[in-house]
Amino acid sequence: MIKDSLNNYDKYTDLSSNIIKGLKYLKNTDFNLLNDGKYFIDGENLYVNIQTYITKSNADYEAHRDYADIQYIISGQENIGVTDYTTCTTTIEYNKENDIEFLNGHGDFIKMDTGDFMILYPDDAHKPSISIDIKSPQKVRKAVVKVKLQ
Is CATH 2.60.120.370 what the domain over 2-148 is classified as, yes or no? Predict the structure, then answer.
């Protein structure tokens, strides 16, 4: 797992070429011009889901096998829980078509602010979209770049 501000994206030039392409896409895109939805950057190898939602008080962890996530906060704030996949137990079995498995586990919450990104690999079980203050859910707009692992 890597968490940083998109302002520092050029520190990560030694990562995979698709991760770098994803970070460059985030850095160079005006998200005010895009509606929520799925946009292909390089076919199924690299695409982005743009979404707007209200944060929630809790959720299951999730994990992916075929893709890494680059989760980028366009606007708003949220917590993302992160833990080691191997310490979790499965609550909903892996769905290959959607590349997702849901899990129960315990981990640390990381605060994400506007302009922050987090890179999550298959061994990073994660719980996104969690309210900073459970009494005050807020609106978040996020881009999730899906990076096919080679």
Answer: yes
Contact in structure between 93 and 21 (CB atoms under 8 Å)? no
Spans of all domains in the chain: 2-148
Q: Say if residues 72 and 48 touch (Cβ distance below 8 Å).
A: no
DSSP 108: E
Buried b (16+ CB within 10 A) or exposed e, 81-93: bbbebeebeeeee
82-122, pLDDT tens digit by residue? Answer: 999 999 999 999 999 999 999 999 999 999 999 999 999 99
Dump pLDDT digits (tens) for 24-66: 999 999 999 999 999 999 999 999 999 999 999 999 999 999 9
Cβ(73)–Cβ(116) below 8 Å: yes
Q: Report whether 78 contacts 112 (CB < 8 A).
A: yes
DSSP secondary structure of 22-46? HHHHHHH--GGG--SEEEEEETBTE
DSSP 45-63: TEEEEEEEEE-BS---EEE
Amino acid at 100: I
pTM of the model: 0.95
